[in-house]
Amino acid sequence: MKQIVNVDLTTRTTDWSPPTLSFGEDLTLCLYFTKDVNGNATVPNLNYTSGGAKAAIGYVDARPLGGQFALHIGSDTQSSANTTALIQYNEPATTVAAAINALSSIVTTYGAATVQAVNGSWLIHFAHGDTEVPLEVVQNGLWPVSLGHLGAWQVNNKWVHEVRLVQAPLAFTSSNDVVAPSGPQVTELRAGGTNGSAVWDELQQLYLPPDFQGAYTLNMGGFARTALLGPTAGPSDIQAALIAAFGDTFTVTLPTSFHFVIDFGGQYAGSPQGNLGVVVEQAPPGALTLTLHLDTAALASALRASNGSITVPLEVRLDAAEDGGPIQDMLAFSIPVTIQRPLILPELEETPQTNWLYPFSPKDYIPFGAENVLTGQQFFPAELGDGAATSFSIAHGLDTEYVYVFVRENIDNGRQLVDGTDFRVNIFNSNSVVVTPVSSTPLALSAWIAVVVSARTVAAWASGLRVAEGQVTGLTDDLAALSSRVSTLETLLPAAASSAGSTSSPTNAFTIALSPVNGFLFARDASGNPITDPKQLPARGAYLLPAINNASSSALPIPAPSPYPNALYSVSGPVSISGGGFIRSSTATAFVGSDGRINYPVTQSGTTSTYFPTPFELTLFEMYFNDMMFSPGTMLTVLFKLALQTINADTECQWVLVIEKGLFSADTVGSPNTADPANLGAVTWDTVNRLVSQRLILTSALETHGFGCTMVNQSSYVSVLSSSTSSNTVSVASVPTALTEYSTLLGRSVTGVTPGTSGSPGTITLSGDANQNITSSSGVAVNFGSFPTNGLYYKRVLAANAAQPPCATFALRARLINFDTRDSATNARGWISWALQNPDNGTLGATIQ
């Protein structure tokens, strides 16, 4: 994109209004300069021969967001003796000083260093102070790409050195040239002529380039020419000049900008004319031209982190001499520009265009596949050159001596090499050739590429061909894998399902239908009611609280201390914790953390040193089932979709979606217990073996996730031959297919199954001793529970048998837990939008059938 920019060097401004730019394009700036001299706009006398211009787009004086670097100190060649250990981008001054003072040779030469952190810079003072110390940023691993801006000056005869890390521009150029604009041009639109009584005039077009600033004249091939015309001359001015020079009658119009149409009438009517000549009498000044390439990795990274576009400063500076003076660095102008992500990507050019009006024909359409057999030419490519060898054997495996070897240089626009002039080829046998370069100089690594081409086409399958299973690579393993997958699918089928069409007894499916629900976490209006309209959300969002990573905790003092970053406290009982940042007061039962803004309850992640904010835990639903609902031979399916998004947030966030099972316990009264067994006491949730556990990243993009679970009740009976309350092994007459690991038998979970062979009994291993003593040669029918379980992740089904319940009476719940923010985010705020939605098909909730 070419833009003409007029710059006033007096005010350092421009009348140019930048258009919205797009990633991937080039921005070419043609700069013209003026300067105010005693109230008059004049063109300054600038000399670019020793300088020019440079332009940059990016963030002004922005610090890096992460990474590390090292400092090379002194003028000696860089070594471990004069280079610090790696320093984090945001290290405190004491750490930087320690890294410098760890270099004993530097301390000996320049004295011990003291460091101050001042407004984003490190100011370094060496004890000797009488010498400017050379500094260099090395081993630069900062991101986004950043530079070390270094400076030094004297204060009270002591040198002070500054190290300031600054993000590199998103786009930069210092390549420039003075380019003279094209002159005016005349082309013929229509030749004049006649046909009987019909007469039409000659039409010619004068094109005046927008950036042309000189003066010109028009002629008709002779010495006569028009008066001098400037870039501001309009149609009437040009028409008057033509008539004055060449007589009546010319008519000049301007139908489109910069394109004048000249009608040859009067004495020239009805006759063809040669094109008017154009002479540039006064050459216009050239434009200082430079081009910014908007396809850099840094710009792509900045756009990825945005909502689709960014607005950043464009700065242009001059290195020029004015009126014969010295070369100076001067600001030309600075102006904000907006850059957006592109919609049309280069990959679209490679996408085949399909005419959907015409169905695919089996005669001419074969879907791509690695297993397809195509007719065509057989060939084998090989790269030649390793820096040492002077002859190369190529094992092509084409099984024929009827081959041709094509060789070329392995570079872009590489030369095709000539057999006999550049190399020689020997056909060694039907599966290999030898290529020998004529020159005895070893080829560099992969310098040539050779292609061995067979004279035979690819063979088709023979009629009536028989192929044994073992002849097909991988077929045996594939069939075994398919057999295993079929077996897995069979375990999901109801074991006691009646045959299709049976009307022996009526059946009704059981459902738990949930209502779609949504909300904005912590968002409430002045009356305390939840806000449901995103337009009513306050502009400043709620506190987004990070996880606490701390290996030790101390007892929480009462009253609670002031918030301190990454603090961790333990509590021995329920303690009320004040809120803040739209987060209400809550109760802590185990731990309290702080991010420096507020104290808040946290939940320990297992036995780790990570504690997640408890106020951000959200229960989506709870459902309860019993053995009458979930009878043997039926299947339980839970389906739901979850929509998540951050609004006005200054960080990405995470949640973990979990589906957990729980078991019921009853109240107890006295000893022995005299309470009704049906009296519900509590639900004990299993937070270790979960049916589903999926980490979710929340951004400003609305994302919809699909989850659920399935469970089959394959409970039945097994014939037990022997069991003992002092043994964890059970002998059975035979092992039913449904009795697998994680099933329950005789009050214990099954941990191992060994089917019998040749009529011998099978053995079941339990997680503990059986709860019954059984001895029977004919076997005793004992009920076992088996509930094969799967988690549903989007369109994937993953086995979760370790989470299956021990019986058909249990509870299920879905929760969002383990909330966290990006580590580098400080004082993070924003709103979290969540919604429980209907699945693509089926019931939002649970179905048993």
Task: Describe the protein's architecture and organization.
With 849 residues, the chain is mainly beta. 6% of the residues lie in helices and 44% in strands. The protein has five helices and 60 strands. Strands 33, 34, 35, 45, 49, 56, 57, 59 and 60 form a nine-stranded antiparallel beta sheet that branches. Strands 1, 2, 4, 5, 15 and 24 form a six-stranded mixed beta sheet that branches. Strand 30 and strand 31 form a beta hairpin. The protein starts with a strand and ends with a strand. Residues 362-372, 459-465 and 495-505 have low confidence and may be disordered.
Question: Percent of residues in beta strands?
Answer: 35-45%
The total of beta strands comes to: 60
Q: Biggest β-sheet, characterized?
A: 9 strands, antiparallel
The shape is extended
Task: List the uncertain runs.
Answer: 362-372, 459-465, 495-505
- The end-to-end distance, rounded to whole angstroms, is 64 Å
Mean pLDDT: 88
Radius of gyration: 41 Å
- Secondary structure class reads mainly beta
Fraction of residues in helix: under 10%
**Given the structure, what is the number of helices?**
5
Q: How are the elements arranged and paired?
A:
Elements: E1 2-8, E2 13-14, E3 21-22, E4 26-37, E5 40-42, E6 46-57, E7 68-73, E8 87-88, H1 93-101, H2 104-110, E9 113-118, E10 121-126, E11 135-138, E12 146-155, E13 158-167, E14 171-173, E15 176-179, E16 185-190, E17 193-195, E18 198-200, E19 202-207, E20 215-219, H3 235-246, E21 250-256, E22 259-264, E23 277-282, E24 287-293, H4 297-304, E25 309-322, E26 327-340, E27 377-384, E28 392-395, E29 403-409, E30 423-429, E31 432-437, E32 448-457, H5 475-491, E33 510-513, E34 517-520, E35 542-543, E36 548-549, E37 554-555, E38 567-570, E39 575-577, E40 586-588, E41 591-594, E42 599-604, E43 610-613, E44 618-625, E45 635-647, E46 653-666, E47 680-685, E48 692-698, E49 703-712, E50 716-723, E51 729-732, E52 744-745, E53 748-754, E54 762-766, E55 774-785, E56 789-793, E57 796-799, E58 810-821, E59 829-837, E60 845-848
Parallel strand pairs: 1-4, 3-26, 37-38
Antiparallel strand pairs: 1-2, 4-5, 4-24, 6-14, 6-25, 7-8, 7-11, 9-10, 10-13, 12-13, 15-24, 16-19, 17-18, 19-22, 20-23, 21-22, 25-26, 27-32, 28-31, 29-32, 30-31, 33-60, 34-59, 35-59, 36-43, 38-41, 39-40, 41-42, 42-43, 44-58, 45-49, 45-59, 45-60, 46-47, 46-48, 46-58, 49-56, 50-51, 50-55, 51-54, ...
